Amino acid sequence: MSHMWLESLITENAQQGFELAMKLSRMGVKYTQPSDEVRGKLRSSYEENADSLIASSQVVAINFQTVAAANNYWRS
Amino acid sequence: MSHMWLESLITENAQQGFELAMKLSRMGVKYTQPSDEVRGKLRSSYEENADSLIASSQVVAINFQTVAAANNYWRS
Amino acid sequence: MSHMWLESLITENAQQGFELAMKLSRMGVKYTQPSDEVRGKLRSSYEENADSLIASSQVVAINFQTVAAANNYWRS
Amino acid sequence: MSHMWLESLITENAQQGFELAMKLSRMGVKYTQPSDEVRGKLRSSYEENADSLIASSQVVAINFQTVAAANNYWRS
Amino acid sequence: MSHMWLESLITENAQQGFELAMKLSRMGVKYTQPSDEVRGKLRSSYEENADSLIASSQVVAINFQTVAAANNYWRS
Amino acid sequence: MSHMWLESLITENAQQGFELAMKLSRMGVKYTQPSDEVRGKLRSSYEENADSLIASSQVVAINFQTVAAANNYWRS
User: Fold this and answer.
1) Which end of chain A, N or C, is less packed with Cβ atoms under 10 Å?
2) How many Å apart are CA F51 and CA E50, to the nearest integer?
3) Which domain of life is it from (chains A, B, C, D, E, F) (predicted)?
4) Which domain, by its residues, includes D25?
5) Mind telling me how many Å the CA of B16 is from chain A's nearest CA?
């Protein structure tokens, strides 16, 4: 991908870190399926499927581990 | 998400940490499916499906790894 | 959950740590499905399903990572 | 489980560590389904199912992470 | 595989690290299914399957943990 | 398994480490299904199934985390 979308793993606080983990999870999908149109069609089905939502939450959890470690867990 | 729901990963004890891991797991779903109504409908099905419950428990386990590390495992 | 069920991640030895990992895995299910009756019904099906048992063992493995790290791997 | 089956996570070498990871994975199943008879029946089906075998290998991989860390990766 | 495709886990920045995680995930598939033709055929189906895309994103997330740790999270 | 197949987790470089992760993933299957014949039959089906290939790549990713950590990420 030619444009820069990930400048750093460092965030100001834990919630921003969680939101970065969301973004990483979505980008993992986008690199595999770059078409906005196809992803849009798929969204309407997986957003109403409990198992897909749980699986999505799992990917976020894994990425959040990475972001949290990068930020030393935002310990003050 | 505009309001603040995750102030810190630090909790007083291990059980509160586990409960924070539950919250993180649910928020991973909520970011993907923001509608309370849709999530409510899905809940009635996955709550009675053993494989969905095991998958949910797995997401909690992953998030608990993060929270536990953040708290240095609540070693006294 | 109002009562205290997780006092600490520290255990006397590795086997007790594994058993605590079992407990954490079950509690991850119980927080999502609090009804003893529903969980009891589900148990009879997943206990005889190989894939469900493998998935359960995976959740235990993830929680055991956390407990083992907390205990510094019970290195003497 | 009343008898002692896990004395330590420390092994002499990496291969014994891998074999301990196998054992941990099987014990995760056994704690959930204690009946030797039921597990024996299930084995004949999942042993010939590619996805079950891959899932089993994943549980071993997770447990091997724990055992390898405990042993400081058997670095000499 | 006889040619060299993985020189190092070190990358200049986080985004390149994410892209290396993508590559590692694809190579994990390629080692198991070396035929470009077969992988090409499969791609057209999994690229339009939401659950396959989420699963792919999960593999990337796991590999990104490794790459991020190798790079000390690109902390400046 | 009586013969020695895993002497060490240390490899000369990252690519050899990835290949060792492949081997660990396969051995996780082989310990559960020792028959070369049965595994050979299964291979022809999962090698042409996208989800099985993604799942295989995930096991490799998990084992690669272990091997990479053992080698201190081949940082020069």
Assistant:
1) C
2) 11
3) Bacteria
4) 14-74
5) 16
Q: pLDDT tens for chain B, 76 residues: list them.
A: 679 999 999 999 999 999 999 999 999 999 999 999 999 999 988 999 999 999 999 999 999 999 999 999 999 7
Is D1 part of a structural domain of the chain?
Answer: no
User: Would residue B56 count as lying in a domain?
Assistant: yes
Residue of D nearest to F27 (CA): D57
CA distance linking residue D61 with residue D2, whole number of Å: 27
Contact between residue F61 and residue F1 where contact means Cβ atoms under 8 Å apart? no
Query: Please, what is the end-to-end C-alpha distance for chain B in angstroms?
Result: 35
**Region A50-66 average pLDDT:** 97
Cβ within 8 Å of residue B34, ≥6 positions away: none
Q: Is residue B31 part of a domain?
A: yes
Whether F61 and E5 lie within 8 Å, measured CB to CB: no
Q: Domain total for chain F? A: 1
CB–CB of E65 and A70 under 8 A? no
Dump pLDDT digits (tens) for D7-66.
999 999 999 999 999 999 999 999 999 999 999 999 988 999 999 999 999 999 999 999
CB contact under 8 A, A57 and B25: yes
ipTM of this complex prediction, to 2 decimal places:
0.97
Given a contact cutoff of 8 angstroms between Cβ atoms, the answer to whether B28 and C28 are in contact is: no
Using a CB-CB cut-off of 8 Å, the residues of chain E touching F50 are: 42-43, 45-46, 49, 52
Q: Which chain C residues have a beta carbon less than 8 Å from that of B49?
A: 42
